[in-house]
Amino acid sequence: MCGLAGFFWNKNQQPDEMRAIASRMADAIVHRGPDDSGVWVDSTTGVGFGFRRLAIVDLSALGHQPMRSQSGRFIIVFNGEVYNHRSLRQELESGGCRFKGHSDTEVILAAFEQWGIVGAARRFIGMFAIAVWDTSRRELSLIRDRLGIKPLFVYQRGGLVSFGSELKALMAGPEFDRTLDPSALTSYLRYLYVPAPQSIFRHVVKLSPGHILTIADPTAALPASAAFWSVEEAARDGQAAQFPGGDQEAVAELETLLTNAVRLRMQADVPLGALLSGGIDSSTVVALMQASADQPVKTFTIGFDQQEFDETFHARAVADHLGTDHTELHLTGADALAVIPRLASMFDEPLADPSQIPTYLVCELARREVTVALTGDGGDELFGGYNRYIQGERLIAGFQRWPSLLRRFSASGLTFVSPRTWNRMRDTLRPVFPTAGRTLHLGGTIHKLGGLMRAESTDGMYQSLLSAWQDPESLVISGVTPGNKDYELDSDNELGLMERMMLADQISYLPDDLLAKVDRASMAVSLEARVPILDHRVVEFSWRLPRKFKVRNGTGKWILREILYKHVPRAMVDREKMGFSVPLAQWLAGPLRNWAGDLLLSGETEGILRSTVLHSEWDRFLAGDSANCAGLWAVVMFRAWQSQWLPTIRHRAEAPVLAPV
């Protein structure tokens, strides 16, 4: 894993000046690649590349970047891994190509020369963000992997195009306009992340997953990027060619695909392990790793001192059964809270997924012993693991049959009672009706249901399930909904409602929240995180599977469970999903109260956020109404980010004083 940066500029500069800029941009992301650095510039065309290397494959100087192709036509900087580089190398060698080293970067360049950029990209199996300069055509091509595992930001303004793995690299570029995009901020407050192709900055876009952006003129508006693969096409093709076999055949086929994906991602010239939560996805990955390994796999788990957020027991049980070399670390609330002051620097675009905290901590733990770690990300989105797919489909389909007036009236009745009161009623009823106490956040769930009932369309109903702020336009001054196409579920197609929810999440939530979180958290400690479940061949096969292989008897991930049953006892698999989060409401009401309040109520939100709305929501929260806890956290994270990255801020927010928890 590495970090890349660069620019394409119409301004005449001396080579030394260009090298200094490229080096400065790369050094801004040194955490992504502490092992080596490099720059390349061409003053005649105004192109410069900077690179930071985390050496994983071919640790020698022959893996140094920027790298030039054998003919000299292509110059590349590349972040990620192409896992099938060995088989591609053999194919290229059979055609007469010769290699100096053993890196996948050298194979990528040879593939470009042999098959062209688009043809080569379609052959790659892996995660990658690539910048390549074609000296023959004088074109810059930016390429992002199919699922958006690796990030790539692009800035364009006034004759300059700059790009990089993180926004902080662009900010260190020749120039950078930090004007906020109000519509992106509105989306962020709704979803807790900024959906691509937007970024938090008006003049920056994220390159969409599976796309290639080719730029010949930095003074012109950015051209449209072209897809070399898309999950929408995979879904359509899968629907048209559904898997014809039965249960055993489907399980065997997926297990073969996953085993191959895991084995490819176990290739490394550095120590390798896995992040193990004890859930179905990570346990399946670790089980297949251990079955393919000749020694115990190193696994890592963290746990918290609050039992409802601690999964170490389950992870330890799986590790013991599989025989891994397991490391677990128990943390106090104060340990987790200590990460919070670092989040704004780590996530240079606002992200308010609270699981970013434990994700960072488990990556930090793993990095003490390994440089590469496999994860279980993607299983929920591919195989129907979220309750909102199952329950949400039932609710949406059912409420669509209700008259609009009846839905709004019922929603008002549900939300008239505060979440705190609903939770008290739950606690009162628990001794008589034990099932009433199973929902940990009953009040918040009921208020979320009320928001769903108020929506007028399928799009709106699903959006309400995903929304932190149900009406962020009322909070953001000049805030508008950008018409995010990622959650258009009303369109007439052959996919069922549940499948449309899953597709929407694979397009937006997966790359822009989950994968962005894992990338920044792992790269902050120079750890390469690999995600075998998101091998594009697994994704394509998942879309060929009829629903019965994903959700059966009201339970998701049926087919993953069947694979895991072969490796661990059923009792370790069939348990309630916990998730990977933190006691956010308790923190905001306790040790973070003063710090969060100062950020939320600061006058520096004037001109961006409506302080009257914030005051009202904060007062409700302090009175015990935690329904909008996630929304308030999103504002806190935005304000901390704003203090870190916007030069208009008159002073930086003080780090929180962390009381014992």
Question: How many helices does DSSP assign?
Answer: 26
Radius of gyration: 25 Å
The helical percent reads 40-55%
The proportion of residues in beta strands is 5-15%
Task: Name the shape in a single word.
Answer: globular
By CATH, the topology of the domain at 2-182 and 195-229 is Glutamine Phosphoribosylpyrophosphate, subunit 1, domain 1
Main sheet: strands, sense, barrel = 6 strands, antiparallel
Strand order of the largest sheet: 2-3-1-9-8-10
| Structural class assignment | alpha+beta
**Low-confidence segments, ≥5 residues, pLDDT <50?**
649-655, 657-661
| E-strand count | 17
CATH architecture of the domain at 2-182 and 195-229, please?
A: 4-Layer Sandwich
CATH superfamily of the domain at 2-182 and 195-229: Aminohydrolase, N-terminal nucleophile (Ntn) domain
Through-space gap between termini: 36 Å
Average pLDDT figure = 89
CATH top level class name of the domain at 2-182 and 195-229: Alpha Beta
Please provide a written account of the structure.
Among the domains are: 2-182 and 195-229, Glutamine Phosphoribosylpyrophosphate, subunit 1, domain 1; 387-498, no CATH class; 584-645, no CATH class. Helices cover 44% and strands 14% of the residues. It is built from 26 helices and 17 strands. It has a six-stranded antiparallel β-sheet with strand order 2-3-1-9-8-10. Strands 4-5-6-7-11-12 form a six-stranded antiparallel β-sheet, covered by helices on one side. It has a five-stranded parallel β-sheet with strand order 15-14-13-16-17, with helices on both faces. Strand 2 (36-42) and strand 3 (47-53) form a beta hairpin. The two termini are 36 Å apart.
